[in-house]
Amino acid sequence: MQRDEQKLRAYFADAPEDISLEDVDLERIPRHVSIIMDGNGRWAQSRGLARPQGHVAGVDSLREAVTTSVRLGVDYLSVYAFSTENWRRPREEVNLLMHLFAKTLIKELPLFDQENVRLKFLGDIESLPKKTYDVFMQGLEQTAGYDGMTFALAVNYGSRAELVRGARALAQDVAAGKLAPEQIDEAALSQRLYTADMPDPELLIRTSGELRLSNYLLWQLAYTEFYVTDVLWPDFTKWDYLRAVRAFEGRGRRFGGVVQS
Ligand code: IPE
Ligand code: IPE
Ligand code: MG
């Protein structure tokens, strides 16, 4: 974990009344924070705007969440941007999102350079429109050498599809004689998921108040602490992030054992 204390204090200087940097223990910042960015459509509707404008506004929140994560010294930030089920949306909305992903990534690459952030994708990105895929590959290439935070963007991601893919990879290795069925254990499956080289999230944030996973990281979230806020994604700020971390630090994690005193 890398953290610039001076930048951190400056970043959280203008604190509102109910939350400040003093409210979190910097020694206990979660290593991996994951976010289901939800509520863009409702945000737009509540302002009399078209849904896509909610997605455009959501980009600002995402940029802020990346910066906040870096400032706090989070090692991994993963975010759910497009699910395997989101193809069911109107074609214009899907097209806009694909275009927005590509455009935003190109625009934000300097931020990754500046903050030493390595990009990663979770999901089947090969079946995305070519332009989006090409930009994603360029982003991967350009940030491959960075060793600060890892930013994992889940696009065309579905947890069930990921587990099926992992199971198929195991079966192929068994069929090829590279793996004995007895060698299939939790680690063997974990290594065949998109998140192979990442620790499981410690904190999952979902915005817009929905109490469901929507096919996100079913395996990886087995012991993750959940924080759901009614704030809609385009309204989510660094202070909401800090509130989530404060709530996380107040939880007693047991992993099936008993409370530590
Ligand atoms: C989340 O916001 C963004 C994506 C799923 C791409 P929504 O678009 O789901 O917003 P709501 O839930 O309809 O308000
Ligand atoms: C989950 O949000 C997917 C993303 C945030 C990318 P949805 O808005 O698609 O989920 P549901 O449909 O409310 O479950
Ligand atoms: Mg939604």
Features:
261 residues; alpha/beta; Undecaprenyl pyrophosphate synthetase; six-stranded parallel β-sheet; 6 strands; 42% helix; binds 3-methylbut-3-enyl trihydrogen diphosphate; binds magnesium ion
Summarize this, please?
The chain has 261 residues and is of the alpha/beta class.
Distance N to C terminus: 27 Å
CATH architectural name of the domain at 29-160 and 203-249: 3-Layer(aba) Sandwich
Major sheet size, sense and barrel closure: 6 strands, parallel
Taken as a percent bin, the fraction of beta residues is 5-15%
The CATH superfamily title of the domain at 29-160 and 203-249: Decaprenyl diphosphate synthase-like
From the spread of the alpha carbons, the general shape counts as globular
Element-level helix/strand string:
HEHHEHEHEHHEEH
> What would the average pLDDT be, to the nearest integer?
97
Order of the strands making up the biggest sheet: 3-4-2-1-5-6
Indicate the radius of gyration in whole angstroms: 19 Å
Q: What is the third-level CATH name, the topology of the domain at 29-160 and 203-249?
A: Undecaprenyl pyrophosphate synthetase
Poorly predicted segments: none
The helix content, as a percent range, equals 40-55%
Q: How many strand segments? A: 6
Descriptive notes:
The protein is built from 8 helices and 6 strands, in the order H-E-H-H-E-H-E-H-E-H-H-E-E-H. The chain has a domain at 29-160 and 203-249: Undecaprenyl pyrophosphate synthetase. The longest helix has 25 residues, at 91-115. The relative contact order is 0.18. Helices cover 42% and strands 13% of the residues. With 261 residues, it is of the alpha/beta class. The radius of gyration is 19 Å and the shape is globular. The mean pLDDT is 97. The protein has a 6-stranded parallel β-sheet with strand order 3-4-2-1-5-6, sandwiched between helices. Helix 4 (91-115) runs parallel beside helix 5. One 3-methylbut-3-enyl trihydrogen diphosphate binds next to helix 2. Residues 37-42, 82, 86, 97, 208 line the site of one 3-methylbut-3-enyl trihydrogen diphosphate.
